[in-house]
Amino acid sequence: MSDLLARIAAELKAHTSVLISVHRDLDGDALGSQLALMLALEKLGKKVRAHNLDPVPEIYQFLPGSDRVGSGKPVAGSYDVFVVLDSEPQRTGLFDDDYPAATHIDIDHHETNRKEWPLTWLDTKASATGEMVYRLVKTLQVPIDREIALCLFTAIFTDTGSYRYSNTTPQSLRISAELLETGINPWLVALNVYETFAYNRIKLLGNVLAGIERNADGRIAWVVVPNLLYEKTGTTSKDTENFINFVRSVKGVEVAVLFRQTGELQYKVSLRSKGQVDVSIVAQALGGGGHKNAAGCTLNGRFEDIKSAVIGRIEKELGPR
């Protein structure tokens, strides 16, 4: 893997302009990794554009450089290198297989990545893509200042569930300790991501949790966020960040599901497991992907049909009690 990392670093050093994108519905790992790499490459004198399909969620707008991240289609400009982080290229949602730039780089830690590009660095043992970007920044010999450190810390902190998830490793803790030594404040991250909810977002959460359901044996629980609730509470889909964790916390639940309406007959499905079920298998079977304990997909059709397909597939993976 060190040879591939060295090749990626060499490609980035050899070119002038870089476009960096991440998956739609960006999270803390995706955005933190993107901003850290953008800031690091700019220290090398590169022209860098960070652009995603979706805008930066409010809870991550404290990150340095977040106000410079573009969103939506099309993506203006021409670039020497296109870097995709924390995702397969098609999951950026920005291009229809006609990717910009001559050099394509994909850096990801998801087991379901199909390694579409030759320069795909996939490390499924990494706790977060931020951990991999940390290694890349080190290879580029860019000093990690407080701004880069804050972005990388946020990436690792959020993707490990503030070091509560099973993907937390000695390496992720060592890296986090080094990042903290730059002088960043971990409370700033916890405050913005987990401890600050807008009033309307609390109203949305209350409405969503009021509709929680379980299957017959109580090992699967789910909630639904229809478009009507956004209108009722004055919120958007971005306000559902971390909602699924409340569902997973229910005693006896092994798999939590969040169905979020994204179109008249379309739903984004998020899956979270406590470890008994590999939800990436469930997501892949439904056309999505992810990790063993966190995965998702997007499905088209009537909600009742979608719910039946998802819950049925999870029950198949769970097996009898």
Jot down its keywords:
single chain; 321 residues; alpha/beta; 6-stranded parallel β-sheet; 6-stranded mixed β-sheet; 12 strands; globular
The helical percent reads 25-40%
Low-pLDDT residue spans: none
Strand order across the biggest sheet? 3-2-1-4-5-6
CA-based shape: globular
Radius of gyration: 19 Å
Task: Please characterize this protein's 3D structure.
With 321 residues, this protein is of the alpha/beta class. The protein contains eleven helices and twelve strands. A hairpin with a 2-residue loop joins strand 9 and strand 10 (266-273).
Outline of this structure?
With 321 residues, the protein is an alpha/beta fold. The protein has helices at residues 2-14, 28-43, 129-139, 146-159, 170-180, 186-194, 199-210, 227-233, 243-248, 279-285, 303-318, and strands at 17-22, 47-52, 70-71, 81-85, 103-108, 120-122, 213-214, 220-225, 255-263, 266-273, 289-290, 294-300.
Give the secondary structure arrangement, pairings included.
Layout: H1 2-14, E1 17-22, H2 28-43, E2 47-52, E3 70-71, E4 81-85, E5 103-108, E6 120-122, H3 129-139, H4 146-159, H5 170-180, H6 186-194, H7 199-210, E7 213-214, E8 220-225, H8 227-233, H9 243-248, E9 255-263, E10 266-273, H10 279-285, E11 289-290, E12 294-300, H11 303-318
Helix pairs in contact: 1-3, 2-3, 2-4, 3-4, 4-5, 7-8
